[in-house]
Design goal:
This protein is mostly helical. The chain has a domain of 66 residues. The chain contains 25 helices and four strands. The chain has a two-stranded antiparallel ribbon. Strands 2-3 form a two-stranded antiparallel sheet. Helix 14 packs across helix 25. The longest helix has 26 residues. The chain starts with a helix and ends with a helix.
Length: 523
């Protein structure tokens, strides 16, 4: 990230503004998706092509070879000294003059040329090698793509065991058919899953269960409300622990916030925000408890007629699916601390579990491949490319510079309360239209350079803003986009503008609550 920020300093202001307008254009086109009669992947893909071409014309993008296999980065001086020591040791064992005469040049010259050709201007990657790679390949966050594909396949195949229908009916029975209680149950499940898994996986699993439950209850008219609420709650649940989201890890590490402290500080807000979201959803979407005896009796009779064993064709596959689901959740939740898996990350885990489940239908796997939402995958890939170009065009640097100017009066020991509010609202606003990961990294670097102490609420302003900003637009976070995709999967009407219209009051409530929380309790 530092290298991108450093490079963006050479980009002219006019170029940065031009690319910022392109980003605005993308957002406007996505908002007019239905009127344009174009899928998200097509819109974002066209902008990705244009951004790559213009990024090349403006000579913004890096086209050097990619270093792979490197396990250590050292300075040029350290590498040069180490290399000279190794060469001197080797020269003691060979006839230097004979080799030099035969080769036609001196060892010293060869040694110098090799060191210069191997070393970068500032750093040297030890034990790595360089490969040619198209510039748009490293632009894409393949971890997110792997999680979406792997989780989608895993959930789709596991659902064939009847497990999700079984869980959904059990939860529905526990609610006694009361829509409000069912909303609370699934809302709490969403927050917990988002805290221990990743937001995308949580949304895919809970969204699938919700659809089954409401179909069984004959309440499909409430499915849109439930899925939207769950999509918003994924970003609240993502605030619960240090490892719940990437911005948490980035900012928490930079600030020196421990796992326990993070949980202790964030959990009161998550609890209150969850309750407020469920209450607001119930009011706005008119989800009420069953009030009359007749309604309750009818719902009880309906629920009593549900048989959770109906969709189970093979108990062996059912128990296998249940075991794999538990193992999947535990593995995803502990990937960041597991040996070997820590390096392979959650995307590998999702794909690995999907591959295992595919063995059950090894002769007909193509039916599951067709079920993958390739429009969603294509959109994410194109969006990552657009944001990547925006980084090199200085758009994120311009955002950071603006916030840096707004916070210029901060000292190492004190900060004006309004600074925390400005930072939180600014981070939320910009993370709703850009990738919150590089934004969080950039803002964390700014606070680190300013010498901001660990106890400062400014760190929490970034954490809350980067996470909650995802609720402002469907492209603000991967989980809200997945929620909208599930809505379209079940043939429910929802446009970009429609999402913003519905989600805006929730997002404003969340951001306002977070601002008050930071100003009153984390100063």
């Amino acid at each position: 990230m530092n290298s991108i920020l450093f490079a963006s300093a050479d980009v002219s202001t006019g170029t940065t503004i031009f690319f910022a307008l392109l980003l605005v254009g993308l957002i406007v086109c996505l908002a007019l998706e239905e009127k344009l009669h174009a899928k998200k992947s097509v819109i974002a893909g066209l902008f990705a092509v244009v951004c790559l071409l213009l990024g090349t014309c403006f000579q913004l993008l890096p086209y050097e070879q990619i270093v792979v296999g490197s396990h250590e980065v050292v300075s040029h001086d350290e590498f040069h000294a180490s290399y000279l020591d190794s060469v001197e040791h080797d020269l003691e064992e060979i006839d230097v003059e004979a080799v030099s005469a035969e080769a036609g040049h001196s060892p010293a010259t060869e040694e110098s040329e090799h060191a210069e050709s191997t070393a970068d201007e500032h750093d040297v990657h030890v034990d790595g090698h360089r490969i040619s790679m198209p510039v748009y390949i490293p632009a894409i966050d393949w971890g997110v793509i792997a999680i979406i594909i792997g989780s989608s396949l895993f959930v789709d195949i596991t659902s064939r065991s009847g497990l999700f229908t079984w869980i959904a009916i059990k939860v529905t029975k526990a609610s006694k058919g009361d829509p409000l209680i069912l909303l609370i149950y699934y809302g709490l499940m969403t927050v917990v899953f988002s805290a221990v898994l990743n937001n995308v996986t949580a949304m895919i699993i809970v969204g699938s269960l919700t659809a089954v439950s409401l179909e069984k209850l004959g309440r499909r008219d409430k499915l849109l409300s439930f899925l939207l609420t769950e999509g918003l709650l994924t970003n609240i649940g993502g605030l619960l622990t240090l490892i719940s989201s990437v911005p948490n890890i980035i900012v928490g590490t930079a600030a020196g916030i421990s796992f326990v402290k993070f949980f202790v500080v964030a959990s009161p807000f998550v609890v209150v925000a969850t309750i407020a979201t469920l209450f607001m959803a119930a009011k706005l979407f008119n989800i009420k408890r069953l009030s009359t005896k007749e309604e309750k009796q009818k719902a009880t009779e309906l629920v009593a007629g549900f048989d959770e064993n109906d969709g189970i064709e093979s108990w062996g596959f059912f128990y296998f699916g249940a075991s794999m689901l538990v193992l999947f959740i535990l593995t995803i939740a502990t990937t960041s601390v597991m040996p070997y898996l820590q390096q392979l990350e959650m995307g590998f885990v999702a794909l690995a579990f999907a591959a295992i489940m595919l063995l059950r239908f090894k002769s007909e796997v193509d039916q599951f491949y067709k079920a993958v939402d390739w429009d969603l995958i294509g959109f994410f890939m194109a969006l990552f490319v657009v944001i990547y170009v925006m980084e090199y065009a200085g758009v994120l640097h311009m955002i950071g510079s603006g916030l840096d100017y707004a916070l210029k009066d901060i000292t190492a020991s004190t900060a004006n309360p309004k600074d925390a509010g400005i930072l939180l609202v600014g981070a939320a606003g910009f993370s709703s239209v850009t990738d919150n990961i590089p934004l969080a990294a950039m803002l964390a670097n700014i606070l680190s350079d300013l010498g901001t102490p660990t106890s400062s609420g400014l760190w929490w302003s970034i954490i809350f803003g980067a996470n909650l900003g995802g609720n402002l637009t469907p492209i603000g976070s991967a989980s809200t986009l997945v929620a909208v995709t599930l809505i379209h999967k079940y043939k429910l009407p929802m446009s970009f503008a429609g999402f913003v219209k519905i989600a805006f009051p929730f997002a404003m409530l969340h951001i306002a609550m977070a601002t008050v929380y930071v100003l009153l309790f984390l100063r």
